[in-house]
Amino acid sequence: MKLLTKPIIKKATEQYSKGSDFEQMVVAKFFHPFSTWSWYLMNMDDENGSYCWGIVNGFAVESGSFSMKELESIKIHGIGIERDLHFKPIKASELWETLNNK
Q: What is the extent of the structural domain holding 60?
């Protein structure tokens, strides 16, 4: 599965200048079926498509950078990271609040 589509790339790169501003939208969710970890993409550098900023729900809920190249290289039992096809864009502050109140 392609993790990034042209519309996702367009939205994420348009928001790159917003940095860690939680008023921007989360445009995609990535996960691994054998893990509880999720990566939520807020923005990405259009010159270096591997550098992404978002929310990561792993051992704890954190905001920060992650590498798309690293996500694409992860394989657990031969299965890689997937994109949640049913994810609807949401304001980062709303997602942050939801994840931290679980």
A: 6-100
43, HSE (Cβ side, Cα atoms, 13 Å) = 19
Distance CA 99, CA 57 (A): 8
- 18, burial (CB in 10 Å: exposed 0-12, middle 13-18, buried 19+): middle
Residue 3 in contact with residue 30, Cβ under 8 Å? Answer: yes
Burial degree of 63 (CB within 10 A; 0-12, 13-18, 19+): middle
- Domains in the chain: how many in total? 1
pLDDT digits (tens, 9 = 90+) for 87-98: 999 999 999 999
Per-residue model confidence as pLDDT tens digits over 41-99: 999 998 877 899 999 999 999 999 999 999 999 999 999 999 999 999 999 999 999 99
In this structure, what are the phi and psi dihedrals at residue 26, rounded to the nearest 5 degrees?
A: -85, 125
Kindly state whether residue 1 falls inside one of the protein's structural domains.
Answer: no
**Selection from 23, 20, 37, 27 nearest residue 4 by Cα:** 27
Full-model pTM: 0.94
